[in-house]
């Protein structure tokens, strides 16, 4: 993902001003989610890999510079942009981990212009991936033992989003994706059957099923609801018998009352001695409907999950920010109404007593969630594998209290601030108020 | 946007089966939105250009074919894929036009395998662009005479989505975007000021404002709410006076009570003889808040609009589908519960009596909204310009009844079916029921 112009204009304005003024001291920015979306008990950290790819390859092309020259940037600035690379450090919570509001997902420490220029893309990527991974996790909680397959591509917000959704779904344990490019790119299992149009393109449903089974005898899943669902199941049974098929068989229900239809389909299949034929359900399912079906004990073996997950329909974004917390060795924050920030480089300490957000150089009990992932502009260690991310998610999920896992009225996990962080915040707030010429009495403190 | 693997696996399965069986007769697929999202009175058609780019360049690369060979596609199919290009016809409603539920936004007529393979990406792009253009249009309705600027990049669902949002916002009349790459790519006006981090990187707000104004004397907008908004306004006034600035000046309010703060900021500026300094507001604004401020007569000259528009937060998708309506000269449809479709190639006829969806070869009164945009795989005419799309939007908006323009409880515009379409639908439904072995008595008819 190259492209130094993948940014907001104000980042370029600020970087230009910093470069012109020699303001190149190290700055630390912290990227975190201020509050959990409604009904969410936790978030799943995701999106770090594309951020690291972006930072590793950050540079302005000659075409970028030519465009900027025509849009208000002078030669002094353009020369500085030409030389600029990302040479900083990144600490982050690895992808797949379950996190809470206010916990830094990523902290960048780099010369101020570099750290500023990364803002827009880092926010964009972490927000997208974390939003969809957190949504996909809710389907995992809902589906019980049933398999889940990502069907979202057709209605995600573009191609990037489709790739992010397939990847995020894999992190939280989806078995497969319909998205072929994502399967190739990330080494996922691709899955897919037929559309209603396939059935309609033949004179009869029976002919369509026969053709498909002849062409894909090892992986025939029949879409049975084009005309009448149970008639469709009977046609599938007839096809399976006629061709003596035995492996990789399924029927897919894509409309109607999935509870009733899945039970009737199961009964028809079982009566035909086809207990091995799996029942696949799809059709605009949100996680609440999946949970309802699962709790009702329906004989659905796998769900295809599309739009509701793909756009995180009930909460299509998280309240993510990228905030300056230190510059040139000085802790900073802002005091804006309802949007105040906390200063300093941070660490999250996780123990059985909960999470504590402290300063990075503190020595508190617990596992340290943020780890160095980039030093002097280069990755620390190899590219992270999706399998590793999935293992982290599974482990964190197993440790999660029941209240945080509820799909409605979840009890959000929160994190305390360490005494040292609280104290630095108070001092920095006083300092900021003094600099701003405000009364020292800090009513928010 | 190349990439024949940017698709769902089932499209490849179906295309493979069709190719193997010589099912290459022309098929027509219709892409439309079944129902309007809640509170919407209309949609803005958008996303056609990326679809045409995709179709024009459609082909499988050798790498694509190698991957498919390892994933269940045999040599006969791979040879057919290697030769496959899009050679069909596309009719569409031009971007920027205001449309209604059920109206075909795009119809593809092509040999069946080609038309099927295009499904996923066409749906993905039309859905994204139409969703965000329709959301952005609501801000236009809300903002009165104030300018609007797209600030959404940091929280859109990836980079594609950021580009689509900037473009969609421009179509409905936004004045500028913060997204630099989008400004370059689409020839839009880029706009941007400074972040809170800029103010914090200096010892005092006054120093930050002075530095910024020195560096950008022709386009200094001061972000005034880092510490205290009205103190920030006073610091901006002081800076403007000290440097004798006169052009392109503004203050930006990004938090707090925008109604009260904008009035007080205006008063301070006016008392300082700085009537030309514009007031800019931002900060998580949805269109209802913008409408509320606008109706209250606040002195806000421009709004920066971010996440709520960028993800279309209240309705992050439209209920779009791509349905086979004709194959080999035979009209087709599906009967699925609640998801029935209508057959045949269509046209939308718009007159002062409303919209009528009819068959393409009918001769009804009114303007014909669908026009040919691709013939034999090549575009008809040049690339459409965003200026043209904006003109179409403005003209259609001017003709819209007030009820459809309301932001809450809008009266959705709908479209009637012509007698010929209704008759074809009834015949085709009977035909489908007969083929499916269902009773001829059509209870849905």
SSE map:
The structure is a homodimer of 445-residue chains.
Chain A lengths: L8 H12 L5 E8 L9 E2 L3 H9 L5 H8 L5 H9 L5 E4 L5 E2 L6 E6 H6 L1 H24 L4 E4 L8 H13 L4 E2 L2 H7 L9 H6 L3 H11 L5 E3 L5 H14 L7 E4 L4 H14 L6 E4 L5 H9 L6 E4 L1 H4 L9 E8 L2 E2 L14 E6 L2 E6 L7 E2 L2 E5 L2 E2 L6 H13 L3 H4 L9 E3 L1 H17 L10
Parallel strand pairs in A: 6-7, 6-11, 8-9, 9-10, 10-11, 15-19
Antiparallel strand pairs in A: 1-5, 1-12, 2-4, 3-5, 3-17, 12-13, 14-15, 14-16, 17-18
Structure description:
The structure is a homodimer. Chain A has about 450 residues and is an alpha/beta fold. Chain A folds into 2 domains: about 10-130 and about 315-415, nicotinate phosphoribosyltransferase (Alpha-Beta Barrel); about 145-310, TIM Barrel, CATH 3.20.20. Chain A contains 17 helices and 19 strands. The first copy, chain A, has helices at about 10-20, 50-55, 60-70, 75-85, 110-115, 120-140, 160-170, 180-185, 195-200, 205-215, 230-240, 260-270, 285-295, 305-310, 385-400, 400-405, 420-435; strands at about 25-35, 45, 90, 100, 105-110, 145-150, 175, 220-225, 250-255, 280, 300-305, 320-325, 330, 345-350, 355-360, 365-370, 370-375, 380, 415. In chain A, strands 13-12-1-5-3-17-18 form a 7-stranded antiparallel β-sheet. In chain A, helix 1 packs across helix 4 (about 75-85) and helix 6 runs parallel beside helix 13. The longest helix of chain A has 24 residues, at about 120-140. Chains A and B meet through helix 1, helix 6, helix 7, helix 8 and helix 9 of A and helix 1, helix 6, helix 7, helix 8 and helix 9 of B.
